[in-house]
Specification:
Order of helices and strands: EHEHHEHHEHEEEHEHEHEHEEHHH
Strand order of the largest sheet: 2-1-3-12-11-4-5-10-8-9
Catalytic activity: (2R,3S)-3-isopropylmalate + NAD(+) = 4-methyl-2-oxopentanoate + CO2 + NADH
Family: Belongs to the isocitrate and isopropylmalate dehydrogenases family. LeuB type 1 subfamily.
Number of domains: 2
Helix content: 40-55%
Radius of gyration: 20 Å
CATH class of the largest domain: Alpha Beta
Organism: Gaoshiqia sediminis
CATH architecture of the largest domain: 3-Layer(aba) Sandwich
Largest sheet: 10 strands, mixed
Cofactor: Mg(2+); Mn(2+)
Keywords: Amino-acid biosynthesis, Branched-chain amino acid biosynthesis, Cytoplasm, Leucine biosynthesis, Magnesium, Manganese, Metal-binding, NAD, Oxidoreductase
Structural class: alpha/beta
Strand content: 15-25%
Distance between the termini: 20 Å
CATH topology of the largest domain: Isopropylmalate Dehydrogenase
Bound molecules: 3-isopropylmalic acid, manganese (II) ion
Shape: globular
Number of helices: 13
Length: 354
Amino acid sequence: MKLKLAVLPGDGIGPEIVEQAMKSVKAIAAKFNHELEYEYALTGATAIDQVGEPYPDQTHELCMQSDAVLFGAIGDPKFDNNPKATVRPEQGLLLMRKKLGLYANIRPVETFESLLHKSPLRRELVEGADFVAIRELTGGIYFGEKGRKDDGNTAFDTCTYTRAEVERILKLGYEFALKRNKKLTVVDKANVLESSRLWREVAQGMAPNYPDVTTEYMFVDNAAMQIIQWPKNFDVMVTENMFGDILTDEASVITGSLGLLPSASIGIHTSVFEPIHGSYPQAAGKDIANPIATILSAAMMFEYAFNLMEEGKLIRDAVAASMAAGVVTVDIAEGKSYKTSEVGDWIADWIANA
Ligand code: IPM
Ligand code: MN
Protein backbone atom coordinates (compact mmCIF):
# COMPACT_ATOMS: atom_id res chain seq x y z
CA MET A 1 0.00 0.00 0.00
CA LYS A 2 1.14 3.52 -0.67
CA LEU A 3 1.49 5.64 2.49
CA LYS A 4 1.83 9.34 1.92
CA LEU A 5 2.76 11.22 5.08
CA ALA A 6 3.34 14.79 6.11
CA VAL A 7 5.80 15.03 8.98
CA LEU A 8 5.54 18.11 11.21
CA PRO A 9 8.13 17.93 14.01
CA GLY A 10 7.38 21.39 15.45
CA ASP A 11 9.19 22.78 18.48
CA GLY A 12 11.16 21.74 21.55
CA ILE A 13 11.52 17.97 21.76
CA GLY A 14 9.25 17.60 18.69
CA PRO A 15 12.04 16.89 16.19
CA GLU A 16 13.72 14.25 18.40
CA ILE A 17 10.61 12.30 19.22
CA VAL A 18 9.24 12.43 15.69
CA GLU A 19 12.58 11.09 14.44
CA GLN A 20 12.16 8.05 16.71
CA ALA A 21 8.62 7.46 15.50
CA MET A 22 9.80 7.68 11.89
CA LYS A 23 12.31 4.90 12.59
CA SER A 24 9.40 2.62 13.53
CA VAL A 25 7.31 3.81 10.58
CA LYS A 26 10.16 2.95 8.19
CA ALA A 27 10.71 -0.42 9.84
CA ILE A 28 7.02 -1.23 9.44
CA ALA A 29 6.95 -0.06 5.82
CA ALA A 30 9.96 -2.26 5.00
CA LYS A 31 8.53 -5.30 6.77
CA PHE A 32 5.06 -5.12 5.24
CA ASN A 33 6.18 -3.88 1.83
CA HIS A 34 4.40 -0.55 1.96
CA GLU A 35 5.56 2.21 -0.27
CA LEU A 36 6.38 5.06 2.09
CA GLU A 37 6.46 8.61 0.84
CA TYR A 38 6.97 11.44 3.31
CA GLU A 39 7.86 15.09 3.43
CA TYR A 40 8.74 17.38 6.34
CA ALA A 41 7.13 20.78 6.89
CA LEU A 42 7.33 23.68 9.31
CA THR A 43 4.91 24.46 12.11
CA GLY A 44 4.79 26.21 15.50
CA ALA A 45 7.42 28.58 16.84
CA THR A 46 9.94 27.11 14.43
CA ALA A 47 7.73 28.20 11.54
CA ILE A 48 7.20 31.66 13.07
CA ASP A 49 10.96 32.08 13.38
CA GLN A 50 11.62 30.95 9.82
CA VAL A 51 8.69 32.26 7.79
CA GLY A 52 6.70 34.49 10.16
CA GLU A 53 3.60 32.33 10.67
CA PRO A 54 2.88 29.16 12.68
CA TYR A 55 0.98 27.17 10.02
CA PRO A 56 2.29 28.31 6.64
CA ASP A 57 0.23 27.70 3.48
CA GLN A 58 2.93 25.39 2.19
CA THR A 59 2.54 23.20 5.27
CA HIS A 60 -1.22 23.19 4.83
CA GLU A 61 -0.94 22.19 1.17
CA LEU A 62 1.33 19.30 2.10
CA CYS A 63 -1.11 18.11 4.81
CA MET A 64 -4.01 18.32 2.35
CA GLN A 65 -2.16 16.12 -0.10
CA SER A 66 -1.16 13.55 2.52
CA ASP A 67 -3.04 10.52 3.84
CA ALA A 68 -1.90 11.26 7.37
CA VAL A 69 0.11 13.78 9.35
CA LEU A 70 2.62 12.83 12.02
CA PHE A 71 2.96 15.75 14.41
CA GLY A 72 5.48 16.36 17.20
CA ALA A 73 4.69 19.24 19.53
CA ILE A 74 4.50 23.00 19.42
CA GLY A 75 5.13 25.75 21.93
CA ASP A 76 7.95 27.95 23.07
CA PRO A 77 8.27 29.76 26.42
CA LYS A 78 9.28 32.99 24.72
CA PHE A 79 5.64 33.31 23.59
CA ASP A 80 4.00 32.06 26.79
CA ASN A 81 5.56 34.83 28.81
CA ASN A 82 4.49 37.56 26.44
CA PRO A 83 0.71 38.17 26.56
CA LYS A 84 1.03 40.84 23.87
CA ALA A 85 2.57 38.55 21.23
CA THR A 86 0.15 38.65 18.29
CA VAL A 87 1.51 35.61 16.47
CA ARG A 88 1.66 32.47 18.62
CA PRO A 89 2.62 28.85 17.96
CA GLU A 90 -0.75 27.64 19.35
CA GLN A 91 -2.57 29.58 16.62
CA GLY A 92 -0.89 27.27 14.15
CA LEU A 93 -2.36 24.23 15.85
CA LEU A 94 -5.85 25.75 15.96
CA LEU A 95 -5.61 26.85 12.33
CA MET A 96 -4.46 23.40 11.30
CA ARG A 97 -7.39 21.78 13.14
CA LYS A 98 -9.87 24.15 11.53
CA LYS A 99 -8.46 24.04 8.00
CA LEU A 100 -8.07 20.26 7.97
CA GLY A 101 -11.52 19.83 9.55
CA LEU A 102 -10.10 17.78 12.43
CA TYR A 103 -13.33 17.63 14.36
CA ALA A 104 -12.56 14.74 16.68
CA ASN A 105 -9.63 14.29 19.00
CA ILE A 106 -9.33 10.74 20.25
CA ARG A 107 -7.31 10.13 23.37
CA PRO A 108 -7.17 6.57 24.66
CA VAL A 109 -6.41 6.36 28.36
CA GLU A 110 -4.70 3.05 29.07
CA THR A 111 -2.60 1.99 31.97
CA PHE A 112 0.72 0.16 31.82
CA GLU A 113 1.29 -2.43 34.52
CA SER A 114 4.93 -1.48 35.02
CA LEU A 115 4.01 2.15 35.68
CA LEU A 116 1.07 1.83 38.03
CA HIS A 117 3.20 2.77 41.00
CA LYS A 118 3.81 6.17 39.36
CA SER A 119 0.11 6.98 39.20
CA PRO A 120 -1.06 9.62 41.67
CA LEU A 121 -3.99 7.26 42.34
CA ARG A 122 -3.94 4.11 44.43
CA ARG A 123 -3.22 1.01 42.43
CA GLU A 124 -6.61 -0.61 43.00
CA LEU A 125 -8.39 2.46 41.64
CA VAL A 126 -6.43 2.73 38.42
CA GLU A 127 -5.35 -0.82 37.60
CA GLY A 128 -7.26 -1.93 34.51
CA ALA A 129 -8.65 1.52 33.72
CA ASP A 130 -9.15 1.71 29.97
CA PHE A 131 -11.27 4.32 28.30
CA VAL A 132 -11.33 6.59 25.30
CA ALA A 133 -11.96 10.31 25.57
CA ILE A 134 -13.35 11.88 22.43
CA ARG A 135 -13.04 15.64 22.37
CA GLU A 136 -14.82 17.82 19.82
CA LEU A 137 -12.00 19.82 18.28
CA THR A 138 -13.23 22.45 15.82
CA GLY A 139 -16.11 24.13 17.63
CA GLY A 140 -17.08 25.60 20.98
CA ILE A 141 -15.40 28.44 22.80
CA TYR A 142 -12.07 27.91 21.04
CA PHE A 143 -13.58 29.03 17.75
CA GLY A 144 -16.56 31.18 18.77
CA GLU A 145 -16.84 34.91 18.48
CA LYS A 146 -14.42 36.66 20.79
CA GLY A 147 -13.25 40.16 21.45
CA ARG A 148 -13.06 43.20 23.68
CA LYS A 149 -15.39 46.09 24.32
CA ASP A 150 -15.57 49.08 26.70
CA ASP A 151 -12.19 50.33 25.56
CA GLY A 152 -10.70 46.91 26.18
CA ASN A 153 -12.02 46.60 29.72
CA THR A 154 -14.52 43.84 28.91
CA ALA A 155 -13.51 40.64 27.15
CA PHE A 156 -15.70 37.85 25.80
CA ASP A 157 -15.43 34.39 24.24
CA THR A 158 -18.53 32.63 22.98
CA CYS A 159 -19.30 28.94 22.97
CA THR A 160 -21.31 28.02 19.89
CA TYR A 161 -22.32 24.60 18.57
CA THR A 162 -24.56 23.60 15.71
CA ARG A 163 -26.78 20.52 15.78
CA ALA A 164 -24.78 19.06 12.88
CA GLU A 165 -21.48 19.45 14.75
CA VAL A 166 -22.89 17.77 17.83
CA GLU A 167 -24.45 14.93 15.84
CA ARG A 168 -21.19 14.27 13.98
CA ILE A 169 -19.12 13.88 17.14
CA LEU A 170 -21.77 11.89 19.03
CA LYS A 171 -22.06 9.49 16.09
CA LEU A 172 -18.33 8.86 16.34
CA GLY A 173 -18.73 8.34 20.08
CA TYR A 174 -21.42 5.73 19.50
CA GLU A 175 -19.31 3.96 16.87
CA PHE A 176 -16.46 3.70 19.37
CA ALA A 177 -18.79 2.50 22.11
CA LEU A 178 -20.21 -0.20 19.83
CA LYS A 179 -16.72 -1.56 19.20
CA ARG A 180 -15.82 -1.41 22.90
CA ASN A 181 -17.79 -1.95 26.10
CA LYS A 182 -20.97 -0.27 24.86
CA LYS A 183 -21.14 2.63 27.25
CA LEU A 184 -21.12 6.26 26.18
CA THR A 185 -20.76 9.06 28.71
CA VAL A 186 -21.86 12.43 27.35
CA VAL A 187 -20.16 15.13 29.41
CA ASP A 188 -21.73 18.59 29.48
CA LYS A 189 -22.90 21.41 31.75
CA ALA A 190 -26.56 21.25 30.74
CA ASN A 191 -27.69 22.61 34.10
CA VAL A 192 -26.16 25.97 33.14
CA LEU A 193 -25.17 26.27 29.49
CA GLU A 194 -27.49 26.50 26.49
CA SER A 195 -24.89 24.91 24.20
CA SER A 196 -24.75 21.96 26.60
CA ARG A 197 -28.53 21.67 26.50
CA LEU A 198 -28.26 21.33 22.72
CA TRP A 199 -25.69 18.55 23.20
CA ARG A 200 -28.00 16.73 25.57
CA GLU A 201 -31.03 17.19 23.34
CA VAL A 202 -29.15 15.79 20.35
CA ALA A 203 -27.80 12.87 22.40
CA GLN A 204 -31.26 12.03 23.72
CA GLY A 205 -32.53 12.00 20.14
CA MET A 206 -29.76 9.67 18.99
CA ALA A 207 -29.63 7.27 21.93
CA PRO A 208 -32.65 5.16 20.80
CA ASN A 209 -30.80 4.43 17.53
CA TYR A 210 -28.09 2.67 19.54
CA PRO A 211 -30.06 0.29 21.76
CA ASP A 212 -26.94 -1.78 22.49
CA VAL A 213 -25.15 1.20 23.98
CA THR A 214 -25.89 2.58 27.43
CA THR A 215 -25.93 6.38 27.22
CA GLU A 216 -24.98 8.15 30.40
CA TYR A 217 -25.10 11.93 30.96
CA MET A 218 -22.69 13.59 33.32
CA PHE A 219 -21.99 17.19 34.27
CA VAL A 220 -18.41 18.18 33.63
CA ASP A 221 -17.62 19.01 37.25
CA ASN A 222 -18.86 15.60 38.31
CA ALA A 223 -16.87 13.98 35.46
CA ALA A 224 -13.70 15.68 36.72
CA MET A 225 -14.33 14.01 40.05
CA GLN A 226 -15.32 10.60 38.65
CA ILE A 227 -12.15 10.40 36.55
CA ILE A 228 -10.05 10.21 39.68
CA GLN A 229 -12.56 8.39 41.86
CA TRP A 230 -13.80 5.66 39.53
CA PRO A 231 -11.79 5.78 36.29
CA LYS A 232 -12.73 2.18 35.56
CA ASN A 233 -16.38 3.18 35.16
CA PHE A 234 -15.69 4.95 31.88
CA ASP A 235 -15.66 3.31 28.47
CA VAL A 236 -16.14 6.08 25.90
CA MET A 237 -16.48 9.69 26.98
CA VAL A 238 -17.51 12.37 24.53
CA THR A 239 -17.47 16.09 25.19
CA GLU A 240 -17.06 19.57 23.77
CA ASN A 241 -13.78 21.24 22.97
CA MET A 242 -12.76 23.00 26.18
CA PHE A 243 -14.20 20.45 28.61
CA GLY A 244 -12.30 17.84 26.62
CA ASP A 245 -9.09 19.81 26.78
CA ILE A 246 -9.23 19.95 30.55
CA LEU A 247 -10.55 16.44 31.22
CA THR A 248 -8.04 14.72 28.92
CA ASP A 249 -5.11 16.34 30.71
CA GLU A 250 -6.58 15.12 33.97
CA ALA A 251 -7.19 11.66 32.57
CA SER A 252 -3.72 11.35 31.13
CA VAL A 253 -1.90 11.70 34.45
CA ILE A 254 -3.76 8.92 36.20
CA THR A 255 -1.89 6.41 34.01
CA GLY A 256 1.41 7.33 35.62
CA SER A 257 3.14 9.04 32.72
CA LEU A 258 2.15 11.74 30.28
CA GLY A 259 5.07 10.62 28.12
CA LEU A 260 3.26 7.51 26.95
CA LEU A 261 -0.08 8.68 25.66
CA PRO A 262 -0.82 9.10 21.95
CA SER A 263 -3.71 10.82 20.23
CA ALA A 264 -5.44 10.93 16.90
CA SER A 265 -7.31 13.87 15.42
CA ILE A 266 -9.72 12.58 12.85
CA GLY A 267 -10.61 14.90 10.04
CA ILE A 268 -12.51 15.65 6.93
CA HIS A 269 -9.44 16.13 4.75
CA THR A 270 -6.79 14.06 6.54
CA SER A 271 -5.95 13.00 10.09
CA VAL A 272 -3.21 14.03 12.47
CA PHE A 273 -1.38 11.84 14.98
CA GLU A 274 0.49 13.37 17.86
CA PRO A 275 1.55 12.73 21.45
CA ILE A 276 -0.61 14.27 24.16
CA HIS A 277 2.32 15.97 25.85
CA GLY A 278 3.77 19.33 24.88
CA SER A 279 7.09 20.54 23.51
CA TYR A 280 9.00 20.19 26.83
CA PRO A 281 11.50 22.93 25.92
CA GLN A 282 13.75 22.23 28.93
CA ALA A 283 14.64 18.87 27.41
CA ALA A 284 15.01 19.96 23.79
CA GLY A 285 18.12 18.65 22.08
CA LYS A 286 19.22 16.63 25.12
CA ASP A 287 18.17 13.21 23.84
CA ILE A 288 16.31 12.47 27.08
CA ALA A 289 12.62 12.90 26.17
CA ASN A 290 10.35 9.88 26.14
CA PRO A 291 9.53 9.01 22.50
CA ILE A 292 6.88 6.40 23.31
CA ALA A 293 3.81 8.63 23.05
CA THR A 294 4.87 9.62 19.53
CA ILE A 295 5.73 6.04 18.57
CA LEU A 296 2.28 4.95 19.81
CA SER A 297 0.79 7.83 17.81
CA ALA A 298 2.39 6.25 14.75
CA ALA A 299 0.67 2.98 15.74
CA MET A 300 -2.65 4.83 15.84
CA MET A 301 -1.82 6.26 12.43
CA PHE A 302 -1.52 2.81 10.86
CA GLU A 303 -4.77 1.74 12.51
CA TYR A 304 -6.92 4.83 12.00
CA ALA A 305 -5.62 6.40 8.79
CA PHE A 306 -4.79 3.21 6.87
CA ASN A 307 -6.80 0.53 8.63
CA LEU A 308 -3.57 -1.49 8.92
CA MET A 309 -4.28 -3.16 12.22
CA GLU A 310 -1.46 -5.70 12.16
CA GLU A 311 1.09 -2.96 11.55
CA GLY A 312 -0.29 -0.91 14.45
CA LYS A 313 -0.21 -3.92 16.72
CA LEU A 314 3.39 -4.70 15.88
CA ILE A 315 4.41 -1.20 16.98
CA ARG A 316 2.43 -1.64 20.21
CA ASP A 317 4.09 -5.00 20.82
CA ALA A 318 7.52 -3.46 20.23
CA VAL A 319 6.77 -0.68 22.72
CA ALA A 320 5.56 -3.21 25.29
CA ALA A 321 8.75 -5.24 24.73
CA SER A 322 10.96 -2.19 25.28
CA MET A 323 9.18 -1.46 28.54
CA ALA A 324 9.38 -5.05 29.68
CA ALA A 325 13.10 -5.07 28.85
CA GLY A 326 13.63 -1.82 30.76
CA VAL A 327 14.77 0.01 27.64
CA VAL A 328 13.12 3.26 28.64
CA THR A 329 14.00 6.92 29.11
CA VAL A 330 14.90 8.51 32.43
CA ASP A 331 11.34 9.67 33.25
CA ILE A 332 10.14 6.11 33.75
CA ALA A 333 13.39 4.16 34.30
CA GLU A 334 13.87 2.35 37.60
CA GLY A 335 17.61 1.87 37.31
CA LYS A 336 19.56 2.27 34.12
CA SER A 337 17.96 4.66 31.66
CA TYR A 338 18.34 5.02 27.91
CA LYS A 339 18.53 7.97 25.58
CA THR A 340 15.61 8.99 23.37
CA SER A 341 17.50 7.80 20.29
CA GLU A 342 18.46 4.48 21.91
CA VAL A 343 14.83 3.72 22.75
CA GLY A 344 13.82 4.66 19.19
CA ASP A 345 16.51 2.40 17.70
CA TRP A 346 15.65 -0.49 20.01
CA ILE A 347 11.96 -0.38 19.11
CA ALA A 348 12.62 -0.10 15.36
CA ASP A 349 15.11 -2.99 15.52
CA TRP A 350 12.60 -5.10 17.44
CA ILE A 351 10.07 -4.48 14.66
CA ALA A 352 12.61 -5.33 11.96
CA ASN A 353 13.51 -8.61 13.69
CA ALA A 354 9.98 -9.61 14.71
C1 IPM B 1 -4.07 20.46 23.40
C2 IPM B 1 -3.39 21.77 23.74
C3 IPM B 1 -3.96 22.85 22.84
C4 IPM B 1 -5.43 22.96 23.14
C5 IPM B 1 -3.28 24.21 22.96
C6 IPM B 1 -1.79 24.12 22.76
C7 IPM B 1 -3.89 25.22 22.03
O1 IPM B 1 -3.53 22.08 25.07
O2 IPM B 1 -3.90 19.98 22.27
O3 IPM B 1 -4.77 19.91 24.24
O4 IPM B 1 -5.83 23.66 24.10
O5 IPM B 1 -6.21 22.37 22.41
MN1 MN C 1 -4.64 20.60 26.22
